[in-house]
Amino acid sequence: MLRLAESLDAVSRGIASVIRWFALAMVLIQFGIVVGRYVFGVNSIAVQEGVLYLHAALFMLGAGYTLLMDKHVRVDIFYARADAATRRRIDIFGHLFLLIPSMLVLLYWSWPSVRNSWAILEGPISVGGIEAVFLMKSLIPAFCVLLILQSLSCLARSFVEARRT
Q1: Domain total of the chain
Q2: Cβ atoms 72, 65 nearer than 8 A
């Protein structure tokens, strides 16, 4: 079970090693946009949308890694004061009854929109923008799948820990 968890973790780490550079790219492109607009009077909708695409990819594809590193948003009302066994039970409950089902529902309901977007190769958000909205919409199922995989890894680790105690 731990080998499976490590394999799933490797997926999240691999994706994170690529998308972490998106943050730097976003900063540099945004800086270029500001300099271009206010110093040279040049503007590009496509370049502006590029920042949007990078931002969306960074957060949607990085969610699994965030879960792996335990840096996601957590409601600490009970969790912060709980012992290790109670925390493990809360985590198992959260993965089994909240995270995985919600990702499955989101995947199910978003799939027709993504499929239709690919069928027509949906064009830009704005006139002159990037002609690839279908790629951005594809981040939704990718987000769901990556979170489900990382959730399964967390569950496997929690079950192994539960058996040890």
Answers
A1: 1
A2: no
The whole domain housing 42 covers: 2-164
As averages over each run of 10 residues, the pLDDT of the chain (165 residues) reads 95 98 98 97 95 97 96 81 91 96 98 98 92 96 98 95 87
Token duo for residue 104: 């499955």
pLDDT tens-digit readout, 73-93: 877 788 888 899 999 999 999
Amino acid identity of residue 109, one-letter, is: W
* Integer Cα distance of 140 and 110 in angstroms: 7
Q: How far apart are the first and last CA of the chain?
A: 16
d(CA 92, CA 158): 7
CA dist., res. 88 & res. 97, Å (int):
14
